[in-house]
Amino acid sequence: MEEEKQTIRAVERALDVLLTFTAGNDLGLTEISQRVGLHKSTVFRLLATLEHRGFVIRDEATEKYRLGLRVLELSASLQREDDPALMLIGEMERLRDQLGETISLYVRDRKDRVRIQAVQSQQAIRRVAPVGARLPLSVGASSKILLAFAEPEVQDLLLHDPSWPASLSPETYKEQLREIARAGYATSFEEREPGAAAISAPIFGRNGKLFAALSVSGPSNRLTPDSMLESAPAIVGAAKRMGAMIG
Amino acid sequence: MEEEKQTIRAVERALDVLLTFTAGNDLGLTEISQRVGLHKSTVFRLLATLEHRGFVIRDEATEKYRLGLRVLELSASLQREDDPALMLIGEMERLRDQLGETISLYVRDRKDRVRIQAVQSQQAIRRVAPVGARLPLSVGASSKILLAFAEPEVQDLLLHDPSWPASLSPETYKEQLREIARAGYATSFEEREPGAAAISAPIFGRNGKLFAALSVSGPSNRLTPDSMLESAPAIVGAAKRMGAMIG
DNA sequence: ACCAATGTTTCGTAGAGTGGAACGGAAGAA
DNA sequence: TTCTTCCGTTCCACTCTACGAAACATTGGT
């Protein structure tokens, strides 16, 4: 069943080491080797290689490892001049000013969703949404959008994937997704994080395929079920306009 | 003389493949293998590994390779909450509004400089400065700043490095750098790119060490040698304020 | 001074990565 | 159509590379 592509073990391990740094703070050799489950000397060599190419650097003071500027260089190449995420900022800011809450843009990447763009609310209490964050596809308003409007085959694949939480029955969940597809938007209330709520609507490209999920998120005392129901049309409308903007 | 650290060849090659994508556009297997100078089958396996971890993806239509969203995730982890580049945006915008030109922030990374932050001019004709760009340390106003205020040992190392252009004599160049250090700022006029000019001033941290080069760049008809001389104090002052802001 | 923990180096061996070659498919030219 | 060409993919035997155990070095804590 599992179709294993031929990959290179050393490279795979090196990438795992790199991904360790998504945790955020600086890491020591031993800590890294524990997290990735590899021998110290192996990780040492991997890190030396990553350092040689500038992907990691060592903090002069603490001697710990940290991501290097090469990854900034790479991420700069990720954005193409016609990057939709860049074109949509204006519309997102308009929606942010209208609703006063943080606006995010999520796309599906494999079995997760990734926030590819965000404009932050200006209020004192607000949802902070760093671009690049990778979140599970099983919870959150935009997750449901990304699933509900995905092609049926991929939806099935994802719901029956081993990574899908066993606590969520695929059948009942699929029924929820059908309902969301009918409504045209999805909400979540203190689902992934306590105290936070969100509404999300799909952005379709010219080809009619789902491109991203537009999401409004904030504290659950401001984004109540009632207020979300009220602002839903504005969000769906904004998402539709955005769809018209991208090629 | 050359103290080669022990590195892993396969990983080194994989990172080279990754760096190929800094060129920008999507690449096919054969093209990549030519650029990195490796056999097709080798590159194929490397790409399969990179794809498996989400660092590259294949465009569904063209079947070509492109960077994946994992690099966005990584670059998000690069920014720490106390990231100086983030704290300085406000001051950079102020300078931009004052001078009407694009403002950039460069740090030295090994033998290059990297633009870690930028705010774009609002004028119709302007310098566009993507964050993450990697540029040579041998030309440009901010290069001279980064060299002139570097520790003497690293300055020597860089000027006598094999990567240093042979056309630039280290001795005469060092004399220029001394002059720049005395003046407190540097300029460049159509040095790296025809039609472009820039002024740059150093930003020092609390510890008195050079942190970055603040740079104002724009078209050479607006940034004339005279006008640059005129606005130099404003830039030097802004750089000084910024230095006080960072820890 | 001792101990504990971390980073670094060495080294023999297993087996992983390599590249040549051959295969399959798609796109074009004749 | 048929031939040609280019690209991506798979196979396989050989060699050298990456591996991990263990020893060594260094630092910090008590």
UniProtKB/TrEMBL annotation, chains A, B:
Residues 8-69 form the HTH iclR-type domain. It comes from Cohnella fermenti. SMART domains: HTH_ICLR. Keywords: DNA-binding, Transcription, Transcription regulation. The keyword Repeat does not apply. Gene3D superfamilies: 3.30.450.40, Winged helix-like DNA-binding domain superfamily/Winged helix DNA-binding domain (1.10.10.10). Coiled coil: none annotated. InterPro entries: GAF-like_dom_sf, HTH_MetabolicPath_Reg, Tscrpt_reg_IclR_C, Tscrpt_reg_IclR_N, WH-like_DNA-bd_sf, WH_DNA-bd_sf. PANTHER family: HELIX-TURN-HELIX TRANSCRIPTIONAL REGULATOR, ICLR FAMILY, TRANSCRIPTIONAL REGULATORY PROTEIN. May be an activator protein for the gylABX operon. GO terms for molecular function: DNA binding; DNA-binding transcription factor activity. This is Glycerol operon regulatory protein.
